[in-house]
Amino acid sequence: MSDFMKSIVQEVMKPSQKSKVNPLFGRETNSIYSRSTVHTTNDSKDIQTIPGVDRPNYQQKNRKKRLAVIEEQSPAPKQIEKAIHPAKNVYSPPSKGFDKSPLAKLQTMSLVQGNHSNSNQQVHSAIGQGKFNQESQCIGQTKDGVKAWLFSYLHPHLQSAFSRSLKSNAIGVITAEKCTAGQLFLLNEMLREFSTLKYFLTWDKENTQGFVLELYEDNPDRLTKSLKALFQKLSQNVYKQIQVFKTQAPSPWLTKQLDLKTHVDGVAVIEGIDYYSAILYLDRFLKKSNEANFSYVLEKNYLLLHGNYDIVSKVSEELQRQVKK
Length: 325
Description:
Layout: H1 2-13, H2 27-38, H3 58-73, H4 77-84, H5 101-129, E1 137-141, E2 147-152, E3 170-176, H6 181-193, E4 198-202, E5 211-217, H7 220-237, E6 243-248, H8 252-257, E7 266-271, H9 275-288, E8 294-298, E9 302-307, H10 309-324
Antiparallel strand pairs: 1-2, 2-3, 3-5, 4-5, 6-7, 7-9, 8-9
Helix pairs in contact: 6-7
Region (Disordered): 15-61
C-alpha cells in the first residue's frame, strides 16, 4: 500500500510531459481507453469498448428510438411549410403589372346588372302606360335605295342600337345609298322648321359611304310629320337628274357642312353634273356674261356657288338651263 502511494506522489511531482499516463491503468489498457474516448462520435456505428467487458450504450439506443419516433410524427417538408404558412393567410403583394381582369369583370357585371334593372323598370313603366301599343313602322322606300323608318317608344333593350344614347319617345331614320348636296339643303330647312329635333348625320361629299340620318324627338306626332315630309322630298328628287338648291343667309351648320370657311349671303348648288362638265358650263357662262362677282367651288359630284344671293341665284338658274339643253 505504501509503494502504491509513493508511485502516485512521484507521478504528480514529475515535470509536465506531452502525454500523461493514468497510473491506474497499464500502458496497453490506457491506450485502448484513449482510442475509445477520442474516436467515439455521434455518427460512429461501431463503438469500441474494453475487451471482455460488455457495456451497452443506452444513450445511443434511446437516441435512435427518439429520432425514429420524431421522423414518423414529423410531416413532410411541404406539410411543414403549409402548417407554418396556411394558404388562406398568405399575403402576396401585388406586382406592378397586376391583372385587372377580375376587377373589370366585377365592374362590368355590376354595370350590366344595373342597366338591366333600369331597363326592366322602363319596360314595366311603358307597359303600365300603354306605350308599347304603338308599333314601329316603315315609312317607305324607293327604287333608288332611299328608306325611312319610325320607331315609337322603342324597347329599352334596343336603345343602344342607335348612334346617340338619347332616351327619346320616338326615333326616325332615313338612309340612302348615295350622298348628295341637296340632302343637306333639305335637312337644313327641316331643322329650321322643327327646332326641337335632335339628329345624328353621316354624310360624305366624296360619296364614299351612304347617307344616314337619325332623328330624335319626344313627341312622336311631331317626328312623324317631319320624317314623312323629308322622305317625300328626297324621294321626288331621286328622279331628277339636274337640280338646283339655293338658300339665303345659310345657317352656320349648312356652311360648315359645305366646307365654307366664311359667312356668305347666299349659296347655291347645281347637282347632277360632274367635275369637268361644271368647268365646261362655267367657261361658256363667263365668256358671255359680265357678271362674275361670285365665287364657286368645283366638286366631284356638284358645283357650289356662293356670294351675293341675287347674283348666285341668277347664275345657278342660267347654268341649269345650259345643262338641260
